[in-house]
Structure to design on (337 residues):
């Protein structure tokens, strides 16, 4: 248990998805297995926890809460994290993030990871790696009842660029990709994120996919099986340093996602994607479940793409890779100045 006056500081990275999205939902991997490639980036969810001065839990997130009983906490992730991983002491907790929620960079999963990490450390238990990821999945999927996959939690807990193999029995194999230097440099300098100006609920969009899967939709099954195979090809292309093949697969991943979202109108996203490609990008795909958020483009010459999307009112989110994953530390009161 951290001492009463100690402060726990934790951060969890967001991620860019590089292939296989949708195959990390239990409705799919429980029957066919799943495979996802993603990279953690140096944009974060952060959390600060100290012992509360009184008898109330004091929480500051997008809203503020004061409750005596943790089961009365309105925020579903914080309620589950504190009831599952807290030690019963009232906490003073605040959180913030580098991007708005619902923008396709895995912020909800990262928030769950950060909450488990910080609350656990405040109670004297420091979870990491797969144990941390699974604990975050449990509170987001089981306790909060959200229809989401597992890739975001695993990407945030582990950091780096990884492939995640989701077995039918629920186990997850994590493989850090062995990337050539030129791929690391390209991910930093030539893969660009642009905000479309629209946000969406991943759980709302993915619930439709789950319903179709459970109904035995053959076209969706074919789509997801190809997405899984294409993600494996993306993994091999990245490790081989073949960025042209990676770009082609990014475009295929977008086409597969667009097919799954055939009934969703996305004129703004289509416009920005076309502008990126006309500006010289080799590939462009929407991050997350679809409907809004960030567009990821691969551009050997990034400046014309930046100029085109800036003119269209799509601001860039610069990033580098994060290799640490979710980290936390305990600081004595007064150490922070």
């Amino acid at each position: 248990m951290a001492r009463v006056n100690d402060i726990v500081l934790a951060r969890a990275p967001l991620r860019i998805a590089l292939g296989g999205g949708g195959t990390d939902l239990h409705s799919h991997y429980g029957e066919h297995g799943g495979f996802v490639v993603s990279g953690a980036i140096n944009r974060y969810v952060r959390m600060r926890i100290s012992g509360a001065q009184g008898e109330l839990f004091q929480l500051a997130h997008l809203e503020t809460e004061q409750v005596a009983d943790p089961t009365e906490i309105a925020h579903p992730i914080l309620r589950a994290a504190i009831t599952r991983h807290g030690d019963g002491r009232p906490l003073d907790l605040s959180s913030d993030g580098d991007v708005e929620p619902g923008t396709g960079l895995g912020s909800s999963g990262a928030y769950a990871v950060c909450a488990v990490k910080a609350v656990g450390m405040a109670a004297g238990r420091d979870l990491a790696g797969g144990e941390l990821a699974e604990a975050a999945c449990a509170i987001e999927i089981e306790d909060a009842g959200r229809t989401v996959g597992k890739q975001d939690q695993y990407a945030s807990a582990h950091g780096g660029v990884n492939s995640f193999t989701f077995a039918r029995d629920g186990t997850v194999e994590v493989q850090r990709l062995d990337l050539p230097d030129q791929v690391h440099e390209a991910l930093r300098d030539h893969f660009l994120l642009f905000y479309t100006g629209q946000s969406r609920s991943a759980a709302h969009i993915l619930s439709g996919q789950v319903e179709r899967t459970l109904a035995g939709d053959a076209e969706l099954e074919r789509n997801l099986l190809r997405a899984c195979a294409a993600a494996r090809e993306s993994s091999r292309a990245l490790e081989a340093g073949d960025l042209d093949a990676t770009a082609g697969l990014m475009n295929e991943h977008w086409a597969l996602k667009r097919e799954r979202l055939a009934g969703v109108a996305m004129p703004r996203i289509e416009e920005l994607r076309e502008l990126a490609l006309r500006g010289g990008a080799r590939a462009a795909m929407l991050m997350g479940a679809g409907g809004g958020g960030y567009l990821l483009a691969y551009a050997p010459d990034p400046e014309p793409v930046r100029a085109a999307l800036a003119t269209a009112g799509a601001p860039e989110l610069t990033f580098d890779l994060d290799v640490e994953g979710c980290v936390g530390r305990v600081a004595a009161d007064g150490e922070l100045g």
Notes: The chain is about 40% helix and 25% strand.
